[in-house]
Structure formats: C-alpha cells, structure tokens
Amino acid sequence: MLKQKKKITVVGGGSWATANIKMLADNVTEKEIFWWMRNEQAVEHLHKFNHNPHYLSSVEIKLPPENISTNLKALIQQADIVLLNVPAAFLKEAFAGITPADLAGKKVVSAIKGIVPDENQIIGEFLNQHYGISFNDFIVISGPCHAEEVALEKLSYLTIASGDLELAAEFAGMINTRYIKTNVSDDIYGTEYGAVLKNVYAIASGICHGVGYGDNFQAVLISNAIRELERFVDAVHPINRDIKESAYLGDLLVTAYSQFSRNRTFGNMIGKGYTVTSAQLEMNMIAEGYYAVNCLQQVNKQYKVNMPVCDAVYAILYQKRSPVIEMRNLAEKLS
Ligand SMILES: NC(=O)c1ccc[n+]([C@@H]2O[C@H](COP(=O)([O-])OP(=O)(O)OC[C@H]3O[C@@H](n4cnc5c(N)ncnc54)[C@H](O)[C@@H]3O)[C@@H](O)[C@H]2O)c1
Ligand SMILES: O=P(O)(O)OC[C@H](O)CO
C-alpha cells in the first residue's frame, strides 16, 4: 500500500510520458509530480514555456519548473513512486547510474511496452532480477490508449496490473480522470507480454498494408495474431485469463488499426520498401516492436510456441527477407 506516499517521478520525455504527466496532473488526488528527461534543451523549453517541444507539444504541463530536470538520481531519491516511460531499448542506458539502493522501498510503475534487449526480460522481470523490486511493489500500466488521444482528452481505458491488487487500485485512483477509466489486474506477465506482442503484430499489419493487402486480409491477420498471442502468454504464464479483455485484444486492435500507431507506421514503410534504418530515421518516434521481435525470438527458444506472424516479422526486419515473399508465405499459414 502507498498510504501517504504521493511523490511521483516520471522517467522519460516522449509522447506517453507527456500523456502520463497530463493524466497525473489532471487527476484530483493530492500528489507532487516530478519529471526526468535526458534532453537538456527540452527541459529548458519546458521551464520557459510549459510545453514539451518534441512530443505532444499542445499539452500544457502544469508542473513547477524546478520539478523538471535531467538529474535522474536526485528525482528518484525524493520519489515514493517511480514511473518508467523510456522505450525498453534505452532503459538500461537511462538507469546507468541507478542502483538497487536508489529504488529500495519505492513502488515502481512501468508504462513501457517492450522487452529489455540482451536481457530478454519484460520490465517486471528486469526490475526484479537487477533491482530487487518485488511484483508486489511493481505496477504495469497498459491497455488500448494512445498518447495522442489522451492529449485530446478522448475517453480511454487503462489496465493497471500488479502483484498487489490493493496497490494497483490505489495507483489507478491517482490517474483516473474524466477521460481516463481504469480497471485492475494481477496478470503482470500476460499484460506485459500482450503489450509487447501487439506491437509486433502492428508492424505485421503495417507491412501487409504497405505491400498492398486489403482490409479483408488484415482482419484474418489480426484474428490469427490474437490466437498466437494467447498461445504465447499461456505458455509463459498459464493462468485463467480472457484474451478478449481490453488489455490484450483491445490493445492489439488499437495498435493494428490506428493512424497514431508508431509500429503500424513503421511496418507500412517497410512494406513499401524502406530499409529499417531509413524507416527509423523517418520517424521521430520509437517502434518498440522492432526491438521486441528480436528478443521474442530468443525467449521463444525456451517455449517453442508456434508463432508464424512473429517469425515473418523477424525474417523481414532482421534477416532482410522480402516483405512481399514473407507475407505471401505467411498467408499460406493463416486460417
Ligand atoms: N505513445 C503511446 O501512445 C504509448 C502508449 C502506451 C505505451 N507506450 C510506451 O511508452 C514507451 C515510450 O514510448 P513513447 O511513445 O512515449 O515514445 P515516443 O516514440 O513518443 O518517443 C521516443 C522516446 O524515446 C527517446 N529516445 C529516442 N532515442 C533514444 C536514445 N538513443 N536513448 C534514450 N532515449 C531515446 C526519446 O527521447 C523519447 O522520449 C514505449 O515503451 C511505448 O511502447 C506508448
Ligand atoms: O501503438 P503504437 O504502435 O504507437 O505503440 C506505442 C505503444 O506501445 C502503444 O500502446
């Protein structure tokens, strides 16, 4: 339980971190919010103008300037809750100077939808093994929710998962607003892996669109993807879960079909013939699924789940296989 603890440090300077700051600030529960980002110029801009210059720049940031800085250690030290929001690929880099002692006694929230490269661990596992954070002190924010729609205050639903359901409910109470509704879950593995996989399936969706498949095929692709997702999370963490819930199916649908999806946009460019590097350069944003599909290949060596959609995306992105041929081969395996 958090009880009187209510100093929150948000770690990361992208779209979702900005949206999380907005939700926390708009929520009426009394709290103090701190914000770390690595970019000094962006911090200076925020101090002067109260807007993030690079992401969701229309959102007004209602924090005192002194609460926003590039000094991660200091901001973590004073926090009761640390909310992580850098892409998984850069988490180790961001945490380079942070020790388990710095996080001792704190609750850690992950709004990241990715796997830590090289470790091949979801965020809960990584924090547990490298920083000693127990699943009862760990919270995941997930669900079908794009930062861009939070900025517009469009009604959105989030799932808050933790080993401690009371803690999950208490944290949910800190982000509920007129436009954010929450539900709680104890399925950390399913919630994290579901979010990781849906990013890969959104890349597949974008690739298919890019090479010319239509809506009819997309629907079959996503129908197969949710079954693949279920096979995988059941293999990794077999509990009784309903894969049709918003945290799993809902998140897959929004990412696979939304105009705001980074992963779908990235996949679409790959389908149209961009190289990985040129597609990444074209986007100011990060497609987590690119990093995740490589990690998933490693993780699945242990579970050996049949994952034709992930395999096709991996072959295209990491083995430089032709999107046209891989998608044609994949189409033969779908039903
Ligand atoms: N955007 C959303 O709607 C949304 C929703 C839910 C979850 N998430 C998750 O939030 C996390 C952050 O994604 P985002 O959408 O806010 O990012 P983004 O694509 O909006 O921004 C990219 C972020 O990555 C950082 N970055 C880029 N290169 C870097 C580097 N070399 N080293 C360190 N940091 C670097 C940038 O500073 C920026 O903060 C991801 O795990 C994503 O899956 C995003
Ligand atoms: O939906 P995308 O492709 O923008 O991915 C970013 C986050 O993972 C959203 O859930």
Automatic annotation (TrEMBL):
The keyword NAD applies. It catalyses: sn-glycerol 3-phosphate + NAD(+) = dihydroxyacetone phosphate + NADH + H(+); sn-glycerol 3-phosphate + NADP(+) = dihydroxyacetone phosphate + NADPH + H(+). Coiled coil: none annotated. NADPH binds at residues 15-16, 38, 55, 113, 147, 262, 286, 288. Residues 187-323 form the Glycerol-3-phosphate dehydrogenase NAD-dependent C-terminal domain. Sn-glycerol 3-phosphate binds at residues 113, 143, 198, 251, 261-263. Keywords: Cytoplasm, Lipid biosynthesis, Lipid metabolism, NAD, NADP, Nucleotide-binding, Oxidoreductase, Phospholipid biosynthesis, Phospholipid metabolism. Residues 7-167 form the Glycerol-3-phosphate dehydrogenase NAD-dependent N-terminal domain. It is an enzyme of class 1 (oxidoreductase). It is found in: Cytoplasm. GO terms for cellular component: cytosol. Pathway: Membrane lipid metabolism; glycerophospholipid metabolism. Belongs to the NAD-dependent glycerol-3-phosphate dehydrogenase family. Catalyzes the reduction of the glycolytic intermediate dihydroxyacetone phosphate (DHAP) to sn-glycerol 3-phosphate (G3P), the key precursor for phospholipid synthesis. This is Glycerol-3-phosphate dehydrogenase [NAD(P)+]. The lineage of its organism: Bacteria, Pseudomonadati, Bacteroidota, Sphingobacteriia, Sphingobacteriales.
